Amino acid sequence: YQKKQSEIYLKAFEWRFEFPEVLNEDGSFEGFDIVIGNPPYISIQDLNPKLKEYYKKNHKHFYLRYDIFACFIEKALSLINSKGFLSFIIPSVFLKKYMLYNTNFSNIDLLKDGVFNKAVVPTMIFVLKKEHNENNKILVSKNKLKNNYLIKQDYLKDTENNVFNLELTERNYNFLKKIEKNTIKLGEISTVSNGINTGNLKKYMSKKYKNYYIKILKGRSIKKWKFNFENFYIKKDFSDYVSLGDVKVFQEEKLMMKRIGKKFEVCYDNSGIAALHTVHTIRLTNKKFDIKYILGLLNSKFMSYIFRLKVPLKGDIFPEFRVFDLNNQVVIKDISRKEQSKIIKFVDLIIKEKDENKNENTKNLENEIDKIIYKLYDLTKNEIKIIENKTI
């Protein structure tokens, strides 16, 4: 037994002997100068209960919020010294408040999709330094160093829920600050809800009308200004569905937005038609605002541009408009009903023309709405030009 134990100790890796540089004169661990790695991408929720309990006990900043790679980041930060560097390749959707306020990012390289065969998520390589100081600037690189620019780390602290938005150049940051003056968040004047999730479309949906069935729309049915009813019906009793909806939600005057897309596609409805979970519904709760004023704003070039400036596309094949983002990132100009009527006038004309012919070209009317909105948010000629030429 003693012989076997001796063999084990002889083969053991004693890191203190291998890395004496990380110890102080008393032999205590001070930390590595650099830690580099490629942590695993595994959802913490998918781990067994014992491992979950371990992460809960040992990783106070990241537990149960992200994939397991977040725990590796926390561990790596504890292994570098007070002036050490950390560099990982991780999904580009990740950033944590703790890192923003306690470290300095020096470089972030945004990589294209498909870096790893089995990991579809967009990825990035970051380099950060453990010490933190104010006014730090991050060098952001896209497309293998062909498109580099600097952003202030403080800008990321100033975003909703510390959203990791690497489009926040100084120009974009100042532009967003300007257009947010005298505005109110969409979530403060309305209720944004996801549609019905049946869990089994074949079981609950029908192409033929039956008793106790109601009309319903899929996401693909939602177009700008008007929807196309495709003769789908669903059981009126929602009690069996995965996510419960209240039929009253659909009976009220509402806007319906396609959940998947690069740009907003929103239509108006007061017919009581229902919608699946591929559609968001928006119902106003503040009577100061007219629902068709909100419709005009959401379908404008300006609003899609602003939203994608705040919530950039991350290489998603099917980019989703999340309820959280719609509530917090869509800012509505707080103006009088009289001022709103300037937009509503054109919205009514567009809806009338679409009712008469759903394929009617209403671009000229839409351009008039865009002009009013540019003036409303006090845009310069150069800012208007950027939006008009932007291809999302």
Provide a quick synopsis of the model:
This protein has 392 residues and is an alpha+beta fold. It has two domains: 2-168, Vaccinia Virus protein VP39 (Rossmann fold, 3-Layer(aba) Sandwich), CATH 3.40.50.150; 183-389, Adenine-n6-DNA-methyltransferase TaqI, Chain A, domain 2. It has helices at residues 2-11, 15-18, 49-58, 69-79, 97-102, 153-157, 170-179, 186-189, 201-204, 247-251, 291-298, 301-310, 323-329, 337-356, 363-376, 381-389; strands at 32-37, 80-91, 104-110, 123-129, 137-142, 147-152, 183-185, 190-194, 205-206, 213-217, 232-235, 254-258, 266-269, 274-275, 279-284, 331-333.
Describe the structure in your own words:
The protein is built from 16 helices and 16 strands. A hairpin with a 4-residue loop joins strand 5 (137-142) and strand 6 (147-152). The mean pLDDT is 85. The chain folds into 2 domains: 2-168, Rossmann fold (3-Layer(aba) Sandwich), CATH 3.40.50; 183-389, Alpha-Beta Complex (Adenine-n6-DNA-methyltransferase TaqI, Chain A, domain 2). With 392 residues, the protein is α+β, with helices and mostly antiparallel strands. The strands form 4 sheets. The protein has a 6-stranded mixed β-sheet with strand order 1-2-4-3-5-6. The chain has a 4-stranded antiparallel β-sheet with strand order 8-15-12-13. A 4-stranded mixed β-sheet has the order 9-11-10-14. The protein has helices spanning 2-11, 15-18, 49-58, 69-79, 97-102, 153-157, 170-179, 186-189, 201-204, 247-251, 291-298, 301-310, 323-329, 337-356, 363-376, 381-389; strands spanning 32-37, 80-91, 104-110, 123-129, 137-142, 147-152, 183-185, 190-194, 205-206, 213-217, 232-235, 254-258, 266-269, 274-275, 279-284, 331-333. 28% of the residues are buried.
